[in-house]
UniProtKB/TrEMBL annotation:
<protein>
    <recommendedName>
        <fullName>Acyl-coenzyme A thioesterase THEM4</fullName>
        <ecNumber>3.1.2.2</ecNumber>
    </recommendedName>
</protein>
<keyword id="KW-0443">Lipid metabolism</keyword>
<keyword id="KW-0276">Fatty acid metabolism</keyword>
<keyword id="KW-1003">Cell membrane</keyword>
<dbReference type="GO" id="GO:0006631">
    <property type="term" value="P:fatty acid metabolic process"/>
</dbReference>
<feature type="compositionally biased region" description="Basic and acidic residues">
    <location>
        <begin position="12"/>
        <end position="22"/>
    </location>
</feature>
<dbReference type="InterPro" id="IPR052365">
    <property type="entry name" value="THEM4/THEM5_acyl-CoA_thioest"/>
</dbReference>
<comment type="similarity">
    <text>Belongs to the THEM4/THEM5 thioesterase family.</text>
</comment>
<keyword id="KW-0472">Membrane</keyword>
<keyword id="KW-0809">Transit peptide</keyword>
<dbReference type="GO" id="GO:0016787">
    <property type="term" value="F:hydrolase activity"/>
</dbReference>
<keyword id="KW-0963">Cytoplasm</keyword>
<keyword id="KW-0053">Apoptosis</keyword>
<dbReference type="InterPro" id="IPR029069">
    <property type="entry name" value="HotDog_dom_sf"/>
</dbReference>
<dbReference type="GO" id="GO:0005737">
    <property type="term" value="C:cytoplasm"/>
</dbReference>
<keyword id="KW-0378">Hydrolase</keyword>
<feature type="domain" description="Thioesterase">
    <location>
        <begin position="74"/>
        <end position="135"/>
    </location>
</feature>
Amino acid sequence: MSRVPPKWPPVEVEHPAPHPDAPEQGTKLGPHYAHCFGCGDETEGGLHLQTECGHDATIIAQFHVTDAHQGAPGLAHGGLLACAFDEALGSTVGQLLRKPAVTGKLETDFLRPVPVGSTLHIAGKLDGVAGRKVYASADGRLDAPDGPIALRARALFVIVDFSHFTEHGTADPRDVHPDRDINP
Ligand SMILES: CCCCCCCC(=O)SCCNC(=O)CCNC(=O)[C@H](O)C(C)(C)COP(=O)(O)OP(=O)(O)OC[C@H]1O[C@@H](n2cnc3c(N)ncnc32)[C@H](O)[C@@H]1OP(=O)(O)O
């Protein structure tokens, strides 16, 4: 089967430098929201993705695959793997650009099965910006930062105003203060 991906990014883009307030390499990034299914630390059934700032404007995430994440016996569920990439790519966009953004489109190539007990090492990077559209992509490697690639993902994020989260969700407007620069 041919796996030739379409042109990426699909439009002409600019390549922005990371925001001056973007975290430095090695900085551990806590959850952006304690109840986020992807990264929250108060969601018993969540993915508990752990992220940190990598080298060369990358965001590195680790997803430990447990019994709770199975789709087939002993294998991770594809939708949860896609969720891990959504979170890692959202973190890449938010942490490096310091702007609130939501996923508009997410494409995932599943190249190898991901067994329970393994750790997926996801490295996300920005591929370009066109107006409010931000293109980002990530590779997910099995069990080591240089392990075999199990998944690849490309995503379009759209920069939004903070009112997206107060009008469509239940974010507290008091939590959207002038110092806040990434998703609540
Ligand atoms: C640190 C934080 C980590 C967070 C990680 C988790 C991130 C998430 O999972 S967010 C939750 C999932 N996503 C959502 O709920 C988003 C739901 N969708 C929406 O709210 C809206 O459709 C939204 C905001 C994406 C776009 O709406 P709107 O603001 O009206 O802009 P709109 O004009 O439609 O689109 C903006 C541009 O993006 C393009 N675009 C939007 N969606 C797509 C798409 N699916 N495919 C291609 N292009 C798209 C539009 O064509 C437009 O392009 P152009 O500027 O060239 O005309």
